[in-house]
Amino acid sequence: FLLSRDGKRLYGTLIQMETANIPEGVTKIGYECFYGTYFKKIHIPNSVRTIEKRAFLTDTETVISISSKNKYFGLKNKCLYNKKNGLLVAAMIKDGYLKLPTKIKMLSDGTSYTGGKIKKIIIPKTVKKIKGNWLMGKTEKAKVYCYTKKVLVKNSYSFGFFSKLYVPKKLYLTYKKTLKKDIKQRYIKVYKK
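RESULT FIELD:
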């Protein structure tokens, strides 16, 4: 591993292994730390307090696990999230499917994904904030089922290009109005659930 002198910050890896067990004592995983690597498994110890943007971004189906004693991050439905603010940190894509757990409260750019493209996404009503391109180009022509209680976006950038967005009936007209420009340019289609 490529670590800071004090051993608290992980910058990356020097050699490719099948499993990456991040050393105990590491408190910060750096920006794009595992970008482009081919690990099958990555284990996060209980000492990790900070994970920077895009830390686990890879096209391989990497399995991320975390120490059950970690106070800062949790793992549910193949989604790694910040326990304090509910931010989705990383998601493991299997067979093109991503169902966000109800622990997720915020989606933001810089989210990491392992595995291939996303074909179907389910966003629960617990999500209160969506910022920027949180999907990082992992979708194209995806079916996005958004159960949020209000419209949280200003453009279709947050749902991927050429996607089909399924929204609650009571929000259908609001989404159509909000995404009018993108709908006209055929970047997204909006449907009632």
